[in-house]
Amino acid sequence: MKKHFIIALAFSLFTVVQFAKAQQVPNPKPPMWDDVQAIKRYDGMFAPPQHPIIFTGSSSIRRWDDAQWIFANYPVLNRGIGGAVTNDVLFYLNDIVLKYQPKQIVLYVGENDLVDKRLNSTVDSVYNRTMKLYSAIRAKMPEVPILYIGMKPSPSREVIVPMELEFNKRMKDFFAKEKNTKFIDIYPLMLAKDGKMRPELYVGDKLHMTKLGYDIWEKAVKPNLIK
């Protein structure tokens, strides 16, 4: 009888534990998790250059596939993440920037923040996130030179043009007072003489750029890179 009681008790405890486990919702992966793990695996196979110039940010950086060849005379390392918002770069800052001990950082992020419905962003909120990201970089690397590329014009996102222009002005004013920083105002460089957007600078989604678009970025960025 005692033996049966012990068995029944053990079975009951097992059932309770299994039920509790079943009620636990597994923690979802953070956004961009798989992309960052792929970067780590790549680093394990191919050693990155020492003290590179890190290009990081969202898909406009990620899709600059030939950046390391375009800037062949510089130790460029592309660590952009497609679809990233500012908080993503902040979350993975150590994995995609700091661990490489870069000699310079080229950053483009924030445009996605303004169209991400989950964030419901304003110019103020994106500016504040950018300040957090900048502060996080400066906390670890107070002197590293930073090239900050302002938001670009995107035909598919004409609705956010006023917000982009306001954001760019605020960032330009901010970086004008900071040491070892450079704001690259890419916006006017990508417009026609009449101030309209140029469709030939974009692929079919009217968001990501063709080689012509990246040619403009190259000319704007290259003179500011450190050898």
Automatic annotation (TrEMBL):
Signal peptide: 1-22
Protein name stated in the entry: GDSL-type esterase/lipase family protein
Residue span(s) of domain SGNH hydrolase-type esterase: 73-216
InterPro entries: Ester_Hydrolysis_Enzymes (IPR051532), SGNH_hydro (IPR013830), SGNH_hydro_sf (IPR036514)
Keywords: Signal
This protein's record includes keyword Signal: yes
Coiled-coil region list: none
